[in-house]
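Quick one: structure for this chain?
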Amino acid sequence: MSRSVSPTFHSASGINIAAPQPHRAVAMWLFFCAFMVFVMVVIGGLTRLTESGLSIVEWHPFTGIIPPLNEGDWQRLYQEYSQYPEFQKVNGWMSVADFKSIFWLEFIHRLWGRLIGVVFFIPFVWFLVKRSIDGTTKWKLAGLFVLGGLQGVMGWYMVMSGLVDRPDVSQYRLTAHFGLALIIFIALLWVGLQQYAPRSGATAKSRRILGVLALIVFTALSGGFVAGTNAGFIYNTFPLMDGHLIPDGLFAFDPAWMAPFEDVKTIQFDHRWLAKLTFFVVLFFWWRTIRLDLSADQKRACHLMLAAVCLQVALGISTLLSVVWLPLGVTHQAGAVILITAATFCAYKLRDPA
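Got it. Here's what it folds into:
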């Protein structure tokens, strides 16, 4: 069905302006794509924590959808894996049966990424043919498709860093891969909200919360460096770290300005304090904002963001104290995306109604 003619309203200057119209089918498709990206982040966290990400040492964007079909395929993949640092330095004890356990998780991770591309592209073309997407939204979604392709390239670029000398991926490339996933997720969610319930201009409140959202994303990215350097497996106490609020030996790296990216003690310290800062910033924003004249929906959005940040802090502390117990570690990564979802939803709800 093609788009219906939008009703008009008169602006203060007397100019007739088309009122934005909701397109619920487009919105639900984008929300589903965002959910798939959320699942992808969770699978990625599980892949990282189980050290499965380097089990597939080649990237075949199209033929890579075919799994091993016989014992000969498994032997070939196992022999390929055995030529690289992770097997030679860490997993030399693995048999073919052990290798299968890490292979399948990485295979699912890559297959799910391809599936996201298909689920995005086919409906996109359909909505274009049916003229259900306006010109501005069309270009936004085309840009998102390009970003999705770049995310696949970034994923392989990350894996390549663990196939040279050290049996682990670069924390820089890991964080970039994670960050691009968050950008795609936020964009899908935002454009979906625009299609589901259009809202007009930004308000002072919605602008302020964008700063809060940026801080949340920055804190999540600092967690990427924690994951990339295994910094969560040391100093597993809270609230003290190595017996102090501010432990000795911070920035003990040459050069010192690289310590937040290379020194595990400094990396964990930064993530801890960014998390605390994020919690108090969200709490302060909530306290200030709910005292204003808000609709019931806007207040609920603010409450949801507060609940999400409380959950994420609890998950972070629990993950640290458990020495990164696998279920808690994966849930903590999922909690970061849930918090970002709540903040994005709140930022959109605080805009003026259309």
